[in-house]
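Hey, quick one: can you model this chain's 3D structure?
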Amino acid sequence: MRYLDLSQPINEGIPVYPGDPFFESRPFAEHETDGFHGTRYVVGSHLGTHLDAPFHFFLDGESLDAFPVEFFSGQAACLNLAPLVGPDSTRNRERADLSRPVALTVDDLAPFEPIFESAPIVLLRVGWSSRVGTAGYYDDFPSLSPDVCDWLADYPKLRILGLETPSLVATSGDPAIASEPETTPTAAAKFDPELDEFLPQDRAPIENAPPSTTNRGAETLARPLDELELLADAECHRILLGRRPPILILEGLVNLESLPTYERPEDGAPVAVAAERAFELSCYPLPILGADGCPVRAVARIESPIETS
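Sure thing. Here's the predicted structure for all 309 residues.
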């Protein structure tokens, strides 16, 4: 049996999603003056390797503490999609519109249908974790689409979708709308140690945000998604997090290349579920009440010999 850490290390200077607070680590007690050491951390709920909860996008959505602890652990499978959409893939190199990220399609994922039918946790490997810690990590990463997320939401056993990327869709060149809505945050909140609080800068509230859905039908929203002119990233989050029960989103994974993986057959035939490619994944958040997200320590427990590609 082997254990593999799939989590990003966290330290000061780690890049954060545009608009999120920077990570800070400051001692409030030190050995030399206090006889012990204690540290105060300033950390955003979506820093590094983290989980998204429905409350992240729905006013009445569940926070992470609403889920039983066993929800965050289970049998998992890793799909190698890097040959299709990774940085070195032909699709990425030859895309006609460089302003839009390369995107996965339903056809790309269709051969893995037996996996989605059986595994409660599925990780998508796209070769992006090599850019962790760089400014380019948040730009132009391989993305999903609302159509793909609709397809994924039809698999009732799936409860956690894991990604190497920092989100579902790269917002630069977002295909959902021509330009970002005026309510999009334009600057990060900065921490003021004298006031002991975050000071938002140039942030406007999102108006007319729809309530959580009881199913994925647009008719249950306060307003249709297209009228809200949501970014594709937000729409994808709403599809997965708004499913009943929700699909939690695990973002920012690393070391997926060291996991046993499923490869997509060149002929597009369905893959066969193989016990030797299964592993157990645990990704426990802190029990923070009302958490819309939280960094996690994602760890794979692998009982069979590791097969990588």
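One thing worth noting: Helices lie at 31-34, 82-85, 90-93, 106-109, 113-118, 146-152, 225-228, 232-241.
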